[in-house]
Amino acid sequence: MLPQSQVVGPQDPRRHEVEQFIADVYRNRYGASLHAFLPHLLAFRDGQGQLVAAVGMRVGSEGPLFVEQYLDEPAQALLSHREIACVGRDRIAEIGNFAATTPGVARELIVRLTDMLHAARVRWVLFAATQQLRNTLDRLHLVTVDLGEASPGRLTGDASQWGSYYQARPKVVCGNVAAGRAFLHQALKQDARPRTDSDPSLQVMVGAQ
């Protein structure tokens, strides 16, 4: 279990440390050079105070989502047109900057993240997922809906900073927060979580920046 968690905002004095942790994980995994991060970072520390995991978040009502660069229309419009859900932007969020030191830590982070999104009344979460991550989510029985390719050609910035990330064929997907949270908590109660310890995608589950 992760003993300490904290939400780190843009002006938090711990912000640089958490951003550097995320950047280091992405550089080691993909040769990426990240310099921009989502506004809210959920960070986790071990008993010695060392960072072991972090993930970024942005709610749709705060402004454009990074993943919307990959889409042909705003997230809430796409969810409605695809008959997935009719929700306002305040009920949609994106996650990204997902970095963890071990698969076990990553699994715990997923549980904490779904709890936080649920508490914030977020109903649908969007993120970019590589093929490896999509396979992992399938094995975990976490249902996602494919919204389209996450093409580097759609980015307004320099795609080269992402290193080899786009070679992993990421797609934009969405998931129902309440359904995912319920399943994860039930699996924890039954101690029946699928084992994914050998899957490196749980060590760096790359979502939207």
From TrEMBL:
InterPro entries: T_hemolysin. Pfam families: T_hemolysin. This is Thermostable hemolysin.
